[in-house]
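thread: overnight batch results

M.L. [08:02]
morning all. the overnight job finished for the chain we discussed friday. pasting input first so we're all looking at the same thing
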Amino acid sequence: MFGLSSTNTQICTNPCPAGYFGDLSTRTCVTTCPIVPSTFGYKPENLCFAACPYGTYADMNNDTRLCVAVTQCSTALNLYADNTTYTCVSICPEVPPMYGNPQTHICVLNCPAAYNLFADNVTRLCVNPCPSPTYGNPTTQTCVSLCPYGYYGINSTRMCSTTCPSGQFSDHLIRICVSQCSIEPIYYGNLPTSDCVTICPSTSYGNPLTQQCVYDVAGISNCPSGYFSDTSTQLCVQVCPLLAYTFADVTTGKCVVTCPNGFYADNSTMRCVTVCPAMPDYFAYIANNVCVELCPSGLFADPISRTCVFQCPSGSWSENATSRCVTQCPF
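M.L. [08:03]
and the structure it wrote out:
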């Protein structure tokens, strides 16, 4: 029996009345079972139990200390029903790995996809969104630091996705959607596919200033000012490559094999020029649109116009030994 103290009576009774629990350590009826020794009130029998009966869970809320049903762990204290210990816990167990479901306040092995929740190994909770630097993996409903192959982390939603938001690119190295692709090694963002690529697609070229692929517009290069599109590397370059033997054409912004009419290929600068340079001493061979050091047979280098001419201008003479126009014939 248990001692019951009330306003009018002090009696021995068994069981304790509703609202009271029999405390075996003190043989009294109490409104809240004691913390020491640790016991919990079981309402069907109005008794304090060290271990709650099967199917109920010890709620650690010290204001009530009750044995509760699986869905009745204290939500105010963010407690979750752990069916490995039959207690209400603030952190679900690591072994086996379980996570607190905020919808039911039960520790679960797998977070529910129906609620789009993901298992977070740090807090041991089912969460959405996942905490930085992790992302929600929809294939496993877990928070991961690296999205699975074919998926990319979106920072704004903390989700792994097969597609990146508009204006962002899928970085295959780190599997994250980025506004600028990796620099080491260098990648370029390709807007039509939202991909980071090592080599830009045909008719597009890697812009080193924006680190994006820029596409030709109506046959004209879209590379930034001072840069030219090079088909041998699919890059925007300031100097066209010597190995490809191409020249910067300012009319199209491209590296070309043959300069347009009125321009001449200058291999000292790898550019198409309207006047061949005096340093080094080059002359325009109009038939081939190139600058040459020595004019072809039958032509003479005119230092005034910097072209190869059939007839030297007035005041100069054609000198066959050097194929040049001279103001004074040699001895």
